[in-house]
Design goal:
With 146 residues, this protein is mainly beta. It is built from no helices and twelve strands. The chain is globular and about 60 Å long.
Length: 146
């Protein structure tokens, strides 16, 4: 059977018909360390460490995801369906590149390289819902990059 989604979640996997039409929403984890000087100039007070991501994956499909036994703080490796982009000349991926079976995880278009990131993340929360009459399983998984 061919894969129905680019998303990979290890070690739990992605069951068939549970992740078609997924949405991945990324945001930065942590508080911004921005402040204004006495001259009203905005400056960054952070120590220069790389930002980490929060990721929320949501979907409504026919089947439930494999979340039985998943708990807060559990480590998951996520090969995202979302593509990150950088300028090819002088650029490089900020994260590991997803390992994939059939679909390439990188491609170049003009001056830009697109890649699907592989992120090591911890589970923050998840939600499951079921619409019996609509025969739809809806779910979301909230993750924070390790």
């Amino acid at each position: 059977m061919s894969e129905l989604t680019l998303l990979r979640i290890e070690p739990i996997g992605v069951p068939p018909y549970s992740a078609r039409g997924i949405t991945e929403d990324f945001s930065l984890d942590g508080d911004a360390q921005l402040a204004r000087t006495v001259n009203n100039v905005l400056i960054d007070l952070s120590v220069g460490e790389p930002e980490k991501y929060k990721l929320s994956i949501t979907c409504t499909d026919q089947g439930m995801p494999a979340l039985d036994g998943v708990i807060r703080g559990m480590e998951l490796t996520v090969d995202c369906a979302t593509e990150f982009v950088f300028m090819t000349a002088g650029g490089s991926p900020s994260r590991d590149v997803a390992e994939t079976t059939d679909d390439p995880a990188t491609r170049t278009e003009g001056a830009f390289t697109f890649y699907r990131p592989r992120l090591t993340m911890l589970v923050a929360d998840y939600r499951l819902g079921f619409d019996e009459w609509g025969a739809a399983c809806n779910w979301s998984l909230d993750l924070i990059e390790k």
